[in-house]
Amino acid sequence: MNIGKIIKETRKSKGLKQQSFAKMCGITQTYLSQIENNVKEPTTSLLRKIAENLNLPLPILYFLSLEKSDIVKRKQEAYELLMPSIKSLINQFFSDDIEK
Question: What is the pTM of this model?
Answer without folding.
Answer: 0.85
